[in-house]
Amino acid sequence: MRLTVREIVEATGGKLLQGDPEVVITGVSTDSRTIRRGELFVPLRGPRTDGHHFIGDALRRGAIATLTAKEGVEGVPNGSAVIAVEDPLRALGAIAHAHRERISLTVVGVTGSVGKTTTVKMTREVLGTRFRVASTREEWNAEIGVPLAILGLDEKTEVAVLEMAMRGLGQIRELVEIARPEIGVVTNIGESHLGLLGSRENIARAKGELIEGLPPGGIAILNAEDDFTPFLRTLHRGEVVTFGFGPEAMVRASEVSRVGERTRFLLQTGKGSVPVEIRALGVHNVSNALAAAAAGLSLGLTVEEIREGLGRFTPAKMRLLPVALPQGVLLLDDTYNASPTSTRAALAVLEDLGKGRRKVAVLGEMLELGESAEEAHRQIGQEVARHGVEVLIAVGELGRFIAAGAQAVGLERVRTVLTCEEALSALLEELRPLDVVLVKASRAVGLERVVEGLRKRLWEVQGENFLKQAPS
Questions:
Q1: Architecture of the 321-460 domain
Q2: Would the N or C end of the chain have less CB density within 10 A of its end CB?
Q3: pTM
C-alpha cells in the first residue's frame, strides 16, 4: 500500500489537523504495539479500551500519521500527521476501498454459517497452484479484518480469498462494497446467529448480501444441497456454479471414503474427473473442498491443478483434528466453535473413527441460537445417542439440555458439569484405554482447556496404568 496523507483525507472525508499532506503512508495498523515505521495508526474503540489512549505511543514507535475521532490530540510529535474523522472504523474501510480501487486483482469472497475458514484455506491452496494468492487470516473476517487484509495486498497479488463474517444484516454488504469480489461462495445456511437474526431466512438474507453484491459478470458458487440455494440464485443475474453430492450439482463428489485420517473422493466436473485425497475428516469437509474446487474451475484451473491444491491443505488448529494420545486414546479436538450443523458433522466423524471402540463426547454450549437454544441442544443430545456414543459429558447451563436429550433416547452414562475444570475431571474419571473422544463447543466456552488438560495429564502419566480398564 502507498497512499499519501492527502489521499487518505479524501478517501475518509476527514480533516487534516496537522502534518504534510504529501507524506506517503506505506501501511495501516490498529495495534500500537506492532506499529511499523511509515504506517498509519487507526485508533479503534473496543469493549475494554479506546485506541485513542495509544496514539502518542504509536507515533513514538514510528507511525507517521494517525486518525482520530477527537479534535484535540495530546502528545503528538512535531511532524506527525493527524487526520480527524467521524468514525475511525468506517474510515478504515474507506481507506481499504481506496487501496482496492488502485490494484488489479480478482477477489473471491467466502461466507456461510459453517466451514468458511476451512473453505478459504482450501481455496487458497487450490488457486495457489497457478496464481499468487493472499487470504484473510483466521481471525480477520469482519469489519476490521477484511479492510486490514485488503490493505496488505500489493500489485503482485493476483487473487485474494477473503472470509466475510457478519453479526447482522447489512454487514456483509459493507464488506462487499469495500472488497468488490468477483466470485462469491456461500458454504451453507445454518443456525449460527439465530439469536441475533431470529430465523434462517434472515441468515440467508445476510449471507446473500455477498451474492447480491457481485457484478453482472461475477460468479456465484452455491451449495446444491442447501434449501436456501434457490433463494440465493435469485440475487444474482450472472453465472451460478453449484457444488454438492447429487447429480444436479455442477461440481460434485462421489465414492467418498475415509483412509486413516484422510478422506478420498472422486471429483466430477464438466472439465473432467479426478480422484482427490484431503487431509481432513468428514463429508462436510468434502463439501468445503467442492466449493474450493468450484472457485478453481471458475478461474480456469484444470482438475489436476485442483487435486494438487487440495492435497496441500492442512486443517487449522481446533478444527476436528485427530490427536493420538498415550494408552491408545484418540482425541478429536473440535473446540474452535460449534453450531447444531457442525456438531452433527463432528458426531458423524466420531462414529466413523470410533468403530469397534468406545466413544466419548464432551460437548459444551452452542451459543447465539436465541429462542431455539433449548430445543437445539436437546436434539444434539438425541444425535449423541444415535451416533453410538457411550459416555456423554455435557458442559454449561445449556449442556443440561444436551444431557436430557440423550437420556430421553436411552443413553445411560451421562454427566453434566458447569465448568471446563469439572469437565476435565469427569473425563479423566470416565476415560479408558483405546477410547475415542470428541471435544466440541462454541469458542466462548473455552473447551480447549479440556483438550490441553487431557493431553498434559496423559503424557505425564504415560508410563503408568492411569486409565481405568474396561471390565472383562
A1: Alpha-Beta Complex (3.90)
A2: C
A3: 0.93
